[in-house]
Specification:
globular; alpha/beta; 7 helices; Nucleotidyltransferase, domain 5; 5-stranded mixed sheet; 5 strands
Amino acid sequence: MYNYFAIFTRMKTLFSFFNENLTEAGCDEAGRGCLSGPVVAAAVILPRDFQHEWLNDSKQVTEAKRKLLRPIIEEKAIAWGVGMVDEKEIDQINILKASFLAMHRAIDQLLIRPELLLIDGNRFTPYPSIAHECIIKGDSKYLSIAAASILAKTYRDEYMEKLHEEFPLYGWDVNKGYPTKKHRDAIREQGPCKYHRMSFTLLPQE
């Protein structure tokens, strides 16, 4: 007997637009919960007819497929941009403001100015003269936000892999700066390095 629910789930597609009359850019970030490195955001304007069976929230896509999706998105997108806020800026302004700033920097890179920004999440600092809609779990609902999540994640992962070459003991090639046991054990044994976010709780309170 066929599992029709499973088949429907696999066939489920993300929305192509929020407002069919406006040029929309999806925006998302990666690295907000990390202990080290930057927060990276992307903004993507996709053609209305763009579809790809793998495209989804980056957390739901394997690393191998994310790497394959990135050049496809960059080639097919009408416009795309990536912005970054490093750990020093994060410590100065806090991670929430840094996430919004990274999105603003990504939007700054767009060669075409969108009329509407689709923001993953429930809050955003307005970008000058462009309307926005905050969409909770938007990266699993709208193609443009999902595409932004793929770019943000792959660019940040690549950056953390380069930092790993300088500080290999933290395992950033695998954990990408997230608070895994290995990462925190290395901080406990060796202390933090210049790429750690000192405003974060690097080790659990004992």
